[in-house]
Amino acid sequence: MTSTTRRRLAATTAALALAATLTACSTGDEPTPEPPAAQESSSSEDAEAATEHNAADVEFAQMMIVHHQGALEMAELAVERASTDEVRALAERIAAAQGPEIELMSGWLETWDEELPAEAEHGGMDHGGMEMDGMDQEEAMSTLAEFEGVAFDRRFLELMVAHHRGAVEMAQAQIGEGADPDALALARTIRDDQNIEITEMENLLRSL
């Protein structure tokens, strides 16, 4: 073998060794990409978990929409007829809070492909915190319309306290039985906010 041939063989052997070393380093440093099918499956499972809801969530949204509609009706009347600024301001706050919550829960029902409550069908419900001092919504509104002045303020506060207690009861049931995270968060908000307003209304009743 000539010297020239030996040099060529040595150069070829060195080049092969270098290539093997680079291949080994590349294999050890770079992570193996996740197969596309596995990534899609994981995303699908995450989306499904995010939209999970159960029958308790549906009932909570449907019933609380109707309940809030009753509160709005009473609050709007109080804004017009209350004789004290404190009662009028409270009624305005109730309307401002519960209107957007009705829209929020209606959106959930549409997203879940569940029925929206028809006020004409559910307005006379007498269960799930729908009664106030033994009266349904229609009876309560008829009774409230008979009062004026401070007597109106007192009757509004008495009925709204009973109405709020019904909402707290419904919210507490949702907290114990619901599954949807957003519905559970709203139930806690309703429970806490309306308990605060119950205390406020009881204090107002003592001052009138």
TrEMBL record:
Domain DUF305: residue ranges: 57-205
Q: Would you say which domain of life the source belongs to?
A: Bacteria
Q: Which UniProt keywords apply?
A: Signal
Residue ranges of region Disordered? 24-52
- PROSITE patterns from the xrefs? PROKAR_LIPOPROTEIN, TAT
Q: Which residues form the signal peptide?
A: 1-24
User: Which InterPro entries does the protein's record reference?
Assistant: DUF305_CopM-like (IPR005183), Ferritin-like (IPR012347), TAT_signal (IPR006311)
Which PANTHER family does the record cross-reference, listed alphabetically?
A: SLL0788 PROTEIN (PTHR36933)
Q: What is this protein called?
A: DUF305 domain-containing protein
Q: What is the protein's species of origin?
A: Cellulomonas flavigena (strain ATCC 482 / DSM 20109 / BCRC 11376 / JCM 18109 / NBRC 3775 / NCIMB 8073 / NRS 134)
